[in-house]
Amino acid sequence: MHDSMTRDSNARPARTRARAALAAALLVACAAGARAEDRIAVHARAGLDLAGAAAHTWSPDAVLIYLENDEPLDTHGASMRWGYLFYSPELQKARGYSVREGKILVAEDLTMKFEAPPIPTEWIDSAAAFTASDEGPARSFCHEHDGHLDTMLLLRGAIEADQPDHTTWMLVYSAPNLPSLFVVLDAANGKVLRTWRG
């Protein structure tokens, strides 16, 4: 009996240590899960101020000329990461910033030389652009062909060539084994300007 009690007393600290280790592991797992849940997708304007401040440090005359999601989009026009491209007329250079969770992950100069018109400050955010697009052919495209929103980009002049001052959102929807659906919106009011497949 004495030997049995000794074995139990020796085993008890080991069991206690094992339970403590298990509890610690569970706490770490829960904390990691909480951090993952905190990583929510955001809309396009969320990283604009941060990217803009960095761009103005790079060149005080820098202006936003292009914006695009850098990671997949959710079903409401939000992404974990957005890319912002700025142009400096003085330097005649462009510099891009990729923002995720309130941090600039990438800041790099573009080697190509081009001058693009600045995007006005008044434009609807990606959530409103998605809603406006989803009310048209995009909804039936996604419903009938198991499609999804793949890309959102904001730019001025390049899509509506006959209206060089027009700022537009372009939304690209993809579906298996089908041409993509392109939807172009007026970035000021969300009006659908045109759609095509290609």
Can you walk through the features of this model?
By secondary structure, the protein is α+β, with helices and mostly antiparallel strands. It has two domains: 1-38; 44-197, no CATH class. It is built from four helices and eight strands, in the order ααββββααββββ. Strands 4-3-2-1-5-6-7-8 form an eight-stranded antiparallel sheet, covered by helices on one side. Strand 2 and strand 3 form a beta hairpin. It is globular, with a radius of gyration of 25 Å. The N and C termini lie far apart (83 Å). Mean pLDDT is 83; it is low at 4-11 and 20-37.
Rg (C-alpha, Å):
25 Å
Q: What's the count of strands?
A: 8
Structurally, the number of domains stands at 2
Low-confidence stretches: 4-11, 20-37
The main sheet comes to:
8 strands, antiparallel
The chain-level structural class is alpha+beta
Strand content: 25-35%
Q: What order do the SSEs take from the amino end to the carboxyl end, as H and E?
A: HHEEEEHHEEEE
Mean pLDDT: 83
Number of helices, where a helix is a run of at least 4 consecutive DSSP H or I residues: 4
Helical amount = 25-40%
